[in-house]
Amino acid sequence: MTSIDTKTLNSLATRFKQLLVDDQIAALGYLYQELGSSLPSIATPDKVNDLLNMMGDMREGSQIEFMQDVLNDQTTKTDEVSLDPHPTKALLELIPGDNVEPPLTQYHKFSPTERLSFWSQLASKMGDEVIALPSDYSLSPEATELLNSLKSLDTDQTVDFLSQIV
């Protein structure tokens, strides 16, 4: 087991959060695709599957917006209501009669383990039920450097890193 201290993991998480959100999504996709089979299997609760199914029903643009919103909005408290940051969608969420919580609110209510499960399942569905990274997409040099740094982590450290960023 490689010894990497908490300070280093925190530094990697900070570097990740400083990436452009599209690079964050791509880096998560690459990371899960590359390391997914070595990561511990996490049972996927029904509420995670429900959100994944909801994402599968979204237009491609909405799927990307949702992933961007999740990664841009890591500071929302779980006891607050998260309205869609897009004004038209937020207005629709405020209209009474729809008892379904907005996807962002559902995500924010997930435990850390459920969030890991969500992103793992999302990565496995990329290209099938969820939009894939464009074949011509290339990571920024900063994102590539970060992914190379993450390759030196063992499984437990990778899970710790992922827990900090999702």
Describe this structure in words.
This protein is 61% helix and 0% strand. It has 166 residues and is mostly helical. It has one domain (6-165): orange carotenoid protein, domain 2. The longest helix is centred in the N-terminal third of the chain and has 15 residues, at 21-35.
Mean pLDDT: 80
The low-confidence parts are 75-79
**SSE pattern, N- to C-terminal:** HHHHHHHHH
CATH architecture: Orthogonal Bundle
Q: Describe the global form.
A: globular
Quote the CATH topology.
orange carotenoid protein, domain 2
- The CATH superfamily appears as Orange carotenoid-binding protein, N-terminal domain
CATH level 1 class label: Mainly Alpha
Strand content: under 5%
Provide the gyration radius in Å: 16 Å
**Termini separation (Å)?**
24 Å
Helix coverage percent of residues?
A: 55-70%
Topology:
Blueprint: H1 6-17, H2 21-35, H3 46-57, H4 60-72, H5 87-94, H6 103-108, H7 112-125, H8 141-150, H9 155-165
Summarize the structure.
This protein is mostly helical. The chain has helices at 6-17, 21-35, 46-57, 60-72, 87-94, 103-108, 112-125, 141-150, 155-165. The longest helix is centred in the first third of the chain and has 15 residues, at 21-35.
Keywords, please?
61% helix; 166 residues; mainly alpha; single chain; 9 helices; orange carotenoid protein, domain 2; globular
